[in-house]
Amino acid sequence: MVLCFASEASALEEGAASWSEMISWELPMPIGGFCCSTGHEGSMAKKKGEIRRRNVEKILLVAEQVFAEKGYAGASMGEIAQLADIPKSNVHYYFATKEDLYREVLLGLLEVWKQDALCFELYDDPRIVLSSYIRAKMAHSRDRAYGSKVWAAEVMQGAPILQEQLRDNLYEWAKLKEAKIREWIDDGRILPVEPSYLLYMIWASTQHYADFNYQICLLNDDRPLDDLQFEKAVQSVTSVILRGIGLTP
């Protein structure tokens, strides 16, 4: 006997060959009056989780591009589903509304950028910390340019969707980084500077390569920066910021 739940199968149909391979299991034959699991149920749950992970990841990456190019108002779940090559009903299965999807894109970006700043906890040398942070930020400005544009658009509009999370989450996170910078200043390890302004300068300098990549391409003979040019850009941003606070790159 095979049982299958349609609501779950709907969200998995593109990744399964048959109904029995979606979200289903065979009931084991009773032995001595009891049922004993064959392990099939566990493998199906694992497969279901992997399909869900892949689909959600794909939807979020496509959504970054659509929200960046069309804005929140101009984006549609239908277009996102089409570009992701996933049925619209399945997109709604994972994200009930466009606002839910948009919020998840923004929160995902926030987590990525917080990961970029883990060097503040891993190292104590300001030169190593700031060099690592700038390089990580620059890398994501190149690899996740659409996401950076979505974030910039949200913030420039006063964060209508993400305002609460920014106040509760980003604020405390930034204050911890400022405290670390202030320690370096108090210890005489870098020149005195307002910590928040140093962070703003890093964010502005690195995210420029995402938010204004069209302008950069235009001024680079209508070509994106190649690997060598981008590495020089990373080194230039790092050098200017470090030298400005009395450090040698």
Walkthrough of the structure:
By secondary structure, the protein is an all-alpha fold. It folds into two domains: 47 residues, Arc Repressor Mutant, subunit A; 140 residues, Tetracycline Repressor, domain 2 (Orthogonal Bundle), CATH 1.10.357.10. It has twelve helices and two strands, in the order E-H-E-H-H-H-H-H-H-H-H-H-H-H. A two-stranded antiparallel sheet has the order 1-2. Helix 2 crosses helix 5 and helix 3 packs across helix 4. It starts with a strand and ends in a 5-residue tail after the last helix. The N terminus is likely disordered.
Short description:
This protein has 249 residues and is mainly α. It has helices at 6-10, 40-74, 77-84, 88-94, 98-116, 119-122, 126-143, 145-156, 163-186, 195-211, 213-219, 227-244; strands at residues 2-4, 24-26.
Total individual domains: 2
Provide the CATH topology of the largest domain: Tetracycline Repressor, domain 2
The number of distinct β-strands equals 2
CATH class of the largest domain: Mainly Alpha
Q: Which segments are poorly predicted (pLDDT under 50) over 5 or more consecutive residues? A: 1-36
Order of helices and strands: EHEHHHHHHHHHHH
The portion of residues forming beta strands comes to under 5%
Backbone structural class = mainly alpha
The value of Rg in angstroms is 24 Å
Shape: globular
Biggest beta sheet summary = 2 strands, antiparallel
Strand order of the largest sheet: 1-2
Pfam families: TetR_C_3, TetR_N
GO biological process, one term: negative regulation of DNA-templated transcription
GO molecular function: DNA-binding transcription factor activity; transcription cis-regulatory region binding
InterPro entries: Homeodomain-like_sf, HTH-type_TetR-like_transc_reg, HTH_TetR, Tet_transcr_reg_TetR-rel_C_sf, Tscrpt_reg_YcdC_C
